[in-house]
Amino acid sequence: MMVYVSVRGRIWLQAEAANMVESVGNYVKHRRVPVIVKEGGNYITFFVPSISGESIAHAYQAILAEELKKLNEKVCPLCEKGIFLKSTNAEVYKLVTKSEPPEKTKKEHTTPEKEIEEKIVVNCGVEDLGGFLYAEKPNVKRTSSFFTGYMIPVKEALKAVSIDPQLHSRYALGTKFVAVGEGERAAGQMIYYVEVSSAVFTFAFDLDTRFIGKHTFHMDSYGKIVEGLTQNNIKNRATAALNALQRLLVEFPIGAKRTRFNPADLRWESIAIAVSNDVFTLPSSFTQDYMLRGLQKKAKVSFNTMIFGYSEEECKADKCYTTPEEAIIEALKEAKGRI
Ligand SMILES: [Zn+2]
Description:
InterPro entries: Cas7/Cst2/DevR_sub_I-a/Apern, CRISPR-assoc_Cas7/Cst2/DevR, CRISPR-Cas7/Cst2/DevR. It comes from Zestosphaera tikiterensis. With 339 residues, the protein is of the alpha+beta class. It has one domain. Strand 4 and strand 5 form a beta hairpin. 40% of the residues are buried. Bound molecules: zinc ion (ZN).
């Protein structure tokens, strides 16, 4: 049985530096994206702070690796350390699968794609779920089973959002480590700037368990369970994916610089989680009416869909809870019951 989980939410992040893109000298820039909105018949573009989908995917896969291992599912030596090279070339492939790539062996291969797909999927649950790209001959690609994207300030916040560079210094004058030699000047103070922003951000994450442990690349094997995995492995991997999603939403360990720029406020303003037996995505939380639109969509399209919600304002869902944690945990309990 497959289960599809769709999450949309709005989350407060105050004084965050979660996704930095480049440093120019001692100046570290926050990621920005253009966002266009319609106002009074005109279109206006804003450049706003954002957090990339890659950043969210990194945090999710790091937790996923841990959850897979708890259930004794295989994770490769790189993914388990948060290094997501994902079988990108022959050298990485050897480390992941503990075998030579088919093109390097003397065996006659009519279907090297099948073998490559099979070996990687069997040997690494993170790459099974999160996809990979084997960029050798032949190319073998696996699409991720989870979907996410840029977090941007919600529509009502666009005009109010700003990014500000904050001055910091590391001071070490007076210690022997910056003692000056002859003709040298003291350099005991290092100043640097970090751009911080504050906003209510959108959040989106969808998880489709349909292809876990199954071929999706080799055409003749499409949809078949890869050799070397059992139904039990697939169930474990789906459970690990849901456990990881729960931890991601409850703890929200997304973004860098969390040791010194941990957001001053990190709080779900609202969240909705739809659990379905087939593909059902919730509408974007960029606009405030997303919970209502979710219910309206469900009235027209439903795959035994159940929407769990929480809102600091008005919650619109099949089941509303008084805390975001309750909504998240109850939704994922329902999802786990369906696999
Ligand atoms: Zn891996």
